[in-house]
Write a structure and sequence with these properties.
Elements lengths: L9 H19 L3 E5 L6 H9 L3 E5 L1 H11 L7 E5 L8 H5 L8 E5 L8 H18 L2 E5 L4 H22 L3
């Protein structure tokens, strides 16, 4: 009989992205990690404990407060939380300096940038590049999507629907 094919749902896609970033992080083996807007992801807790390396979890003040309440005193010694508005802060290095050291740095922005306008994405890229340079090098791991990509995809979907209708005579 016919086989049903299970298509991926959003949860599958998000989990795959999360695992892919973790795999890249393991391959990079940075001296320290900075994660921007991680929400309630436990990656920083896991990584700092498993590899005994500094992990700075940067988020908006309200999210940092929630994390502090949930984590309490259970955080690994190398894990730190820092409150910062990525748009309002011009100098990330100055703002985060107490929690950073010189060394190969991985900066992660998983699922953050696609919600931001391109102009803000570019400002964040510039600030991250400057920060990584000030710390002695490293990399920026992020998933980037632009509104133009979604518009182009929408046009392609419309063309595909028209072709499908033409050849299948379905509405």
């Amino acid at each position: 009989g016919p086989r049903l094919v299970r298509l991926p749902v959003l949860e599958d896609i998000l989990l795959a992205r999360h695992r892919m970033i973790e795999r890249i992080l393991l391959d990079l083996d940075p001296d320290q990690v900075i994660e921007l807007a991680a929400g309630l992801s436990p990656r920083g807790l896991w990584y700092s404990e498993a590899f005994d390396k500094p992990y700075l979890d940067v988020d908006l003040p309200g999210i940092v407060k929630i994390k502090e309440q949930r984590i309490g005193s259970a955080a690994p010694s190398r894990y730190r939380l820092a409150a910062m508005d990525l748009d309002a802060s011009e100098d990330y290095h100055q703002h985060l300096l107490p929690d950073l050291k010189k060394g190969k740095t991985a900066v992660i922005a998983e699922g953050l940038l696609l919600y931001l306008p391109r102009s803000l994405q570019e400002r964040i890229f510039s600030r991250i590049a400057r920060l990584i340079g000030q710390l002695g090098g490293g990399c920026f791991l992020a998933d980037v999507h632009h509104e133009e990509d979604f518009e182009r995809a929408g046009r392609l979907i419309d063309i595909f629907r028209r072709l499908l209708h033409t050849f299948s005579r379905t509405p």
